[in-house]
């Protein structure tokens, strides 16, 4: 249901994304918001506490995430998004209840770590050290492997993999010695959210492995019916969508294919498979209890609340799943109903903070 009474957002920094904000007649209302309450003329109760979310995002992320529908719904629910000015000390801005960020670089990480120490009452989504763990594909999936998750709903594992940091000429022998089977999926070792980090290659024969460019993570290709599941996690909420992926490779085809094939981006939103006429054995979503257990374990082990998993089901099985990638703060704008899920999550964080401060 759409509410009609809205809180007008104000951006202290003067900049919100790529738009300029001109200060004017709103000065009196800003002082009310800075106090943490609604403006006096607002029809809602005066003591309704705003949840103030400072955000530090790239212009691309602002465009995809802070869409008008999200901002409108947030205002109606008492959530205020404020742009963080990276040219001013973070401690001089706010006060914030939550800091939402997705920027890279050592300097920014240090700023956030210092801020977390001096402002323990503010929730930082998410801790920079925890995010850094996902920037390396070797460590990214290790926590999944360590879980050895298996129950009556299925088994979750990772594909067999190895890391190649240099010397492409040695890759064929290294792959053979490790016992990995062709075809081999090659992914950049660094997963920093850049376009390059999303590129992947598939090598179909031993000789072509020399053409790969380290540093890389090499994974055995697992046939999965050409469909993967993107599992979005926002706090305790879970949303799953189907995406088209790479097609299966049979052994007969493998003997006739050679070379390295590069794919700039697999499973993007344009490759949605939710409305496709698929084999039920391929299209069936992973069991919800299995995903809930997996998400809970990963939230604890990773120390993150905003991430997604790329999961595949081994073709020909019903309950063998593999996690092939984990991403921090993914493209939530492509997730159905993300506006409601995300605002509910922010509200729950704000309410829990308010109770702690009041107790």
Automatic annotation (TrEMBL):
<keyword id="KW-0808">Transferase</keyword>
<comment type="subunit">
    <text>Monomer.</text>
</comment>
<dbReference type="InterPro" id="IPR040464">
    <property type="entry name" value="InsP(3)kin_ATP-grasp"/>
</dbReference>
<comment type="function">
    <text>Kinase that can phosphorylate various inositol polyphosphate such as Ins(3,4,5,6)P4 or Ins(1,3,4)P3.</text>
</comment>
<keyword id="KW-0479">Metal-binding</keyword>
<feature type="domain" description="Inositol-tetrakisphosphate 1-kinase N-terminal">
    <location>
        <begin position="52"/>
        <end position="131"/>
    </location>
</feature>
<protein>
    <recommendedName>
        <fullName>Inositol-tetrakisphosphate 1-kinase</fullName>
        <ecNumber>2.7.1.134</ecNumber>
    </recommendedName>
</protein>
<keyword id="KW-0547">Nucleotide-binding</keyword>
<keyword id="KW-0067">ATP-binding</keyword>
<dbReference type="Pfam" id="PF17927">
    <property type="entry name" value="Ins134_P3_kin_N"/>
</dbReference>
<dbReference type="InterPro" id="IPR008656">
    <property type="entry name" value="Inositol_tetrakis-P_1-kinase"/>
</dbReference>
<comment type="similarity">
    <text>Belongs to the ITPK1 family.</text>
</comment>
<dbReference type="InterPro" id="IPR041429">
    <property type="entry name" value="ITPK1_N"/>
</dbReference>
<dbReference type="Pfam" id="PF05770">
    <property type="entry name" value="Ins134_P3_kin"/>
</dbReference>
<keyword id="KW-0460">Magnesium</keyword>
<feature type="domain" description="Inositol 1,3,4-trisphosphate 5/6-kinase ATP-grasp">
    <location>
        <begin position="151"/>
        <end position="347"/>
    </location>
</feature>
<keyword id="KW-0418">Kinase</keyword>
């Amino acid at each position: 249901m759409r509410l009609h009474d809205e809180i007008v957002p104000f951006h202290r920094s003067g900049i919100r994304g790529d738009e300029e904000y001109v200060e004017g007649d709103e000065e009196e209302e800003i002082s009310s918001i800075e106090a943490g309450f609604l403006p006096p003329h607002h029809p809602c109760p005066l003591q309704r506490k705003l949840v103030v979310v400072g955000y530090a995002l790239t212009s691309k992320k602002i465009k995809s995430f802070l869409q008008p529908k999200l901002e409108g719904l947030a205002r109606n629910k008492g959530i205020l998004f404020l742009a963080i000015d990276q040219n001013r000390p973070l401690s001089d801005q706010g006060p914030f209840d939550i800091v939402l960020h997705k920027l890279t670089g050592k300097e920014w990480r240090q700023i956030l770590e210092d801020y977390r120490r001096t402002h323990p009452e503010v929730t930082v989504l998410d801790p920079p050290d925890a995010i850094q763990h996902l920037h390396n594909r070797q460590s990214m999936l290790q926590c999944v492997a360590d879980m050895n998750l298996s129950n009556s709903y299925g088994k979750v594992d990772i594909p067999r993999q190895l890391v190649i940091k240099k010397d492409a000429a040695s890759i064929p022998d290294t792959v053979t010695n490790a016992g990995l089977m062709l075809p081999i999926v090659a992914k950049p070792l660094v997963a920093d959210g850049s376009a390059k980090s999303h590129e992947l290659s598939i090598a179909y024969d031993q000789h072509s492995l020399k053409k790969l460019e380290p540093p890389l993570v090499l994974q055995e290709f697992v046939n999965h019916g050409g469909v993967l599941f993107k599992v979005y996690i926002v706090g305790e909420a879970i949303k799953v969508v189907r995406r088209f992926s790479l097609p299966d490779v049979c052994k007969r085809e493998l003997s006739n294919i050679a070379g390295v094939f590069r794919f700039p981006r697999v499973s993007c939103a344009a490759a949605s498979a939710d409305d496709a006429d698929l084999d039920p054995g391929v299209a069936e979503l992973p069991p919800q209890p299995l995903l809930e257990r997996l998400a809970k374990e990963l939230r604890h082990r990773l120390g993150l609340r905003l991430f997604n998993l790329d999961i595949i089901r081994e073709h020909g099985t019903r309950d063998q799943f593999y996690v092939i990638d984990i991403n921090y703060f993914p493209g939530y704008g492509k997730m159905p109903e993300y506006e409601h899920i995300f605002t509910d999550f922010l509200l729950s964080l704000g309410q829990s903070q308010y109770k702690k401060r009041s107790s």
